[in-house]
Amino acid sequence: RSGERQRRVLLFLVCVCVCESGAEGLRYSLAEELERDSFVGNIAEDLGLSPSQLAARQARVVSEGNERLFHLNAKTGALTAKESLDREEMCPRRDTCT
Question: Which stretches make up the Cadherin N-terminal domain (predicted)?
Fold first, then answer.
């Protein structure tokens, strides 16, 4: 019984540690019809990391589907738009687009 209790406590602590180390999310607001290669933000600065820390953590931009809308320069932390972004094209018949 004592061994089972220790395993449960250990499992609980592992679960707490995993939950506390979750990924962070950032949100940026973009101007409509943003030009290609426009600067969006600096992810390293916004997370309080140096660019080398960002690269060591293998930071990447994840998009839904196959379309890659942004480029992350892991050496500087700069996030830029890969293409010109058009809200009406991306989110037709919607007032807001996320």
Answer: 26-98
Evaluate whether residue 38 is within a structural domain: yes
Tokens standing for residue 72: 């992350």
* Residue 43 domain boundaries: 31-87
Q: What's this model's pTM, rounded to 2 decimal places? A: 0.64
Per the domain annotation, does 94 fall within a domain? Answer: no
- CA of residue 23 relative to chain centroid, distance: 8
Look up residue 16 and give its two tokens: 């707490």
Does residue 83 sit within a domain? yes
pLDDT digits (tens, 9 = 90+) for 54-97: 888 888 887 776 677 888 898 899 988 888 777 777 778 877 77
Tens of pLDDT, residues 16-47: 444 444 555 677 877 777 788 888 889 889 88
E strand or H helix at 42: strand 39-42
Strand order across the 39-42 sheet: 39-42, 78-81, 70-72
**Residue 2, Cα to own-chain centre: how many angstroms?**
42
